Amino acid sequence: MVRNWTLGIMADKETEEVPGTILLIPKSSQQQPLGFPEVVDAEPEKKRTADGAFILDPQPDENPNDPLNWAQWRRDAALLCLGWHCLVGGGQTPILAAGFPDVAKDYGVSTADVALTTGLYMLGMGIGCMIASPTAIIYGKRPVYLAGVVLFLGASIWSAASPNYASLVIARIIMGIGVSPCEALPSATIAEIFFLHERAYRIGIYTLLLLGGKNLIPLVSAVIIQSLGWRWVFWIVAIVVGFNLALLFVFVPETFWDRTPKPKNRSRPSLLQRASSSIFNRSRPQSIRSVSRVVKVNEADEKERIAKEEQFSEQVKAKLDEKRVAFRTDSNENEEASAANAGTVPQTPAARSGAATPVVTYTGGQATPARTPNANERNFYDPETTKPDDHTPHTFRSSLRVWNGVLRNESWWKVFMRPVILFAYPAVLWSTVVYSLSVGWLIVLSESVAHVYQHHPYNFTALQTGLVYLSPFVGGIIGTAVAGKASDVVVRFMSRRNGGIYEPEFRLVMALPVAISTALGLMGFGWSVEERNNFWVPTIFFGVISFGCSLGSTTSITFAVDSYRQYAGEALVTLNFSKNVFHGMVFSLFFNSWLERDGSKTVFIALGVIQLGCLAFTIPLYVYGKRLRMWTVRKGMMERW
After folding, report:
1. How far is CA 309 from CA 97, 296, 601, in A?
2. Is 231 within 8 Å of 219 (Cβ atoms)?
3. Does residue 319 have a pLDDT over 60?
4. DSSP per residue over 171-197, as a string?
5. How many angstroms separate the CA atoms of 579 and 184, rounded?
6. Same domain for 240 and 379?
7. How many structural domains comprise the chain?
8. Are residues 476 and 597 in the same domain?
């Protein structure tokens, strides 16, 4: 009988085997099969961390070329190089925030027109995400990363040399397309090179660098704008991006690894093997491990099971011996005699026809190839079943290949449509909303910073306006540290309370501090500006907003990836497309005029209410999330594509 509740999470009515639900913390030294009615000895013990505290998910292959088997420094180097590039790319959204008046003066347009370039840049990012994801899934992430950096480099030079406003707009759109892999792919890369128990902390680092760029780059650009002019911002960006191209080329190899389960024996079992396995599996008691409970055999049953297994194993061996004798037909007896006189080993009919039969032993009730036979047994040996995989480590030179061939034989257009289909998956939809709000509020603030601080009563210069971003930068660092470590602590605590079983909904507990801090920061920022408080007051609230946004972005990405790891790449496209287009671009069309018309208090209190209203849906998702995950499996919407 399926339990109805697990720490407030409703279980599915029919099954407990739901995607995303895994055994994270073992209860004993013996690891039992998870989720299927397997015999106790049928499944080998799963690999764990060095201290045995966590079961590794996903399970790494024995091949040293599996990215999960790379040296720790190599995996962290790839993460940091990508993170640094994401910091530079993420900072391109508000890079002109302190210089809006200067750009407007040079081109003879309004400040609102210059702010629109930010929204159009985000439109380019949204388009780029939709292109980058299917291309990366089919051809690999490495060529997409490198192509994006090259496009980013070219667009930076174009922006610096733009002769008019229209040219700058086009350059910013193309720049958005080039930067888009920074947001669409790294989370999927993290899921490919780090285990589940390592993932939240690493995603936190990535989020810190991505959002840190949105807070730190405007500070640096403000210094450049005041000393050298706004065009030099893009010239310096071009130099840095050229350096990033070298970093990614050297330290970020292709991370794709096919984890599709592969059968150990590709030849079809013989009739005797299938019959014996069927009889044995019916005759022995089974120990069933489901996601929420374990039905263990008692000691007496275990002894009886072992005795039956030994007895049955002897019977099967006897039957195999009889089968070998039966192979020797009357027509072969003469051949045996002549072969014996010649001192050679006779061939069986199976060997003459080219169909080899493997030597079989019985472990756990299943027939598996046991060893390479000696010369007298070679008639019953199938070399295909024991052919070793190529475990030769790849050389450093081979890892520098830009393109590794087609990784998946799928239609590009079908893969292109998958992020759209994921809007129908409740876990991804929630993550999309929270991520869009978390990153979107920082972008909205970047468009309003010049309006707030460079006018009465503050009258800041471009440099002083840039220094304001120190507050959200510090808030983002604290938020990322809390999101990564605190989330992992919460997950481990709740998993232990749940018998070692991890549910992705455990991540949703972090939605409470996300809602409170972000809403409080938005309302406090708008209220203090309207009341003309000392500049420190709205600046501190800016940091509180960044703290909440860092929590929200890390939580949403981790929840989406943990719920549907097989769709991590597509899910990140869904998140980033929504953030760039539905939030960033749309808000840039009307936000500044709304702010001028209704005032900061009304506008930012409304934003806080929107934040609280959207986060309120976390409660039903926590309760019914597991059932909804199973509902998506039954519908099979993604499988049709």
Report:
1. 74, 18, 76
2. no
3. no
4. HHHHHHHHHHHHHHSHHHHHHHHS-HH
5. 11
6. no
7. 2
8. yes
